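pipeline/complex-builder :: batch 7 item 3
reading input block
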Amino acid sequence: MKAWGTVMAENEPQKTIVIIPAHNEGDHIPAIVHQIKVNYPSIDMVVIDDGSSDDTKAKALLAGASVISNPFSLGYGGALQTGYKFAVKNGYHFLVQLDGDGQHDPACINDLIEPVRRGVTDITIGSRFLASQTKGIDQPAYRAPIVRMIGMKIFGAIATFLIKQKVTDPTSGYQSMNSRVFHLLSGDTFPIDYPDADVIIMLHRAGFRIKEVPVRMFPSPDDKSMHSGLKPLYYIFKMFLSILVTLLRK
Amino acid sequence: MSLRIKIVTFVICIAMLLLIVDLVRRRKLREEYSQLWFATWLGILILMVWFDLLKWVSHLIGAVSTVSTLFLFAFMFLILISLHFSVVISKLTDKIKDLSQQHALLQNELEDIKRVQSNI
């Protein structure tokens, strides 16, 4: 005879949450929230308002999302981690993350979450480059500053070499993961500025299975990408250092 | 080394040590962060008072004058202090991040409770 706890655990529904980090995305948030609510009514959703100075929070609430507001901007990684901590605290089993700027097409949520739910992999990463090679996904041409493109190629190649598996889009923030992964990422090891190829390498070294999935991504509407201005240079420096120390850590 | 520079360095060292003690006394500086400052000025004071040691160290590192040895040590300590501060700032940044996230999660929980209560 099984203990009560075991029976409860087996019957417990597998809860999924979508986290949407957003910094001053009042113009784009309502459409994203609406699309997710209509297409995925059984999935919970939380918008992480990362210290926005506009009406992101009000619009997200009005659209029907739950909102967590960081008191000030903690950066993209910091906002994501608030979402991971929320998911841990509320006992979610699976998590999908997509950006609040409208770059990530919510229609691909199912493609991302299914392999994780089926237990085929621990984390899926949405790739815009894989999509252009896949029939049935119409991928808009991707344009990015030259430094970023070079960075993506270099770090994609390094990640591919280190994890012995093709990584076409290491900068993609459109991901899905199981609870073991977001438990780890809610700790000290998660970089709060640009989580990128270094996180992929860290997760691989921690023994997680990673899978890239083709997704549709739109160009960033306002072009206020975190890879603009002088930041790409810092990004390249930070990523080299971060990958190096990730390899040195146990 | 001239007597004048010895006196000037000695006065500066004593004044700085007194200032650090006073800052700790008035709780403007935590004991934890005062140790490197004490080490810096005590180190310079010892080298200054114990002149043979300064000469020996100068010879050891190949410095032409004993004054440049003092400067080298002062500069080295200042760099160490800056590095120490960078470590402290990194630690504080992490703590502030954790606190802010905790604050955001609690606020969300509080707003949910208020919403439920207002619906009852």
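note: Chain B has four helices and no strands.
queue -> next item
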